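Sample entry copied in:
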Amino acid sequence: MKVGIVGVGLLGDAIASRLRAAGHAVVGYDVVTASMDRLAALGGTPAKSAGDVARASEVVCTILPSLATVEEAILGPHGIVAAGTPGQPILQMSTISPSLTERLARETAARGGVFLDCPISGTSGMVAQGSGVIFVGGDHAQYERWKPLLESILPRAVHVGRAGQAMVLKLVANLLVALNSAAAAEAISLARASGLDPQIVLDVLAGGTGAATSRMLEVRGPLMVQGEFPAQMKLDLFMKDLHLIQDAAKTAGAPLPLTDVAERLYAAAQAAGHGSDDLAVVITELERAAAPSKTARP
């Protein structure tokens, strides 16, 4: 099958590699030249626009960094719906707002297209290894039709309800990512400040047998211990997700006191110039905050 991808960044590249490994042809577009070069190296075909991707593909996936880029790629005058064929499915995998997701689904259907809400829970590194889950919202018959393709990306593709509800679940999952990653950073900072070898602490806690382990400790703990933060999820992008989580909470009337605290820590790390690093870089803000108290000790 020929699958289109609009947005071949970190996550899009991982999805393309999974599709290629499953034997699918991939046509992709991204504004970043290096991303297009990586796609070509995978054996994919670079395209010149989102519309060109739609014209060359049976089904199109969108994995883009912002609400505006998703809307333009799908509904813009030179976008997927305008250039594609009637009934062509759009698998929208970017993290956007539930309200925009619902509108994209309505307007795509009104123009004769098919829309599935398909956000992915998992870092780009996890997805490249086949770990993670795809939440799916939309028509159940269309989910069943495209489930085999989704499962060639990740073995778990779970239908959770109508379009927009999968996106809510993605925001719930990212709330846990935010809190668990911040908790891991706080724990490692305490261990290091107390004189423990943080690598030993990580080996003991992330071994999977204790009650204190978490997936984020396993994934981001090594980055925090090493003090190196190659991006699996850029902090700049994750801040967008945190804002979407807060908006969803306001709409639902759900208080998020722990998320409020974590968001301030991530925002401080971003303001310190770490926006292009992995969100594990939040540990640097904890350590920076601890420095004055250490120097003040007698």
User: Anything to note?
Assistant: The chain is about 60% helix and 10% strand. The domain at 2-161 is CATH 3.40.50.720 (Rossmann fold). The beta strands are 2-6, 25-29, 45-46, 59-62, 89-92, 114-117, 120-121, 133-137, 157-161. The first strand starts at residue 2 and ends at 6.
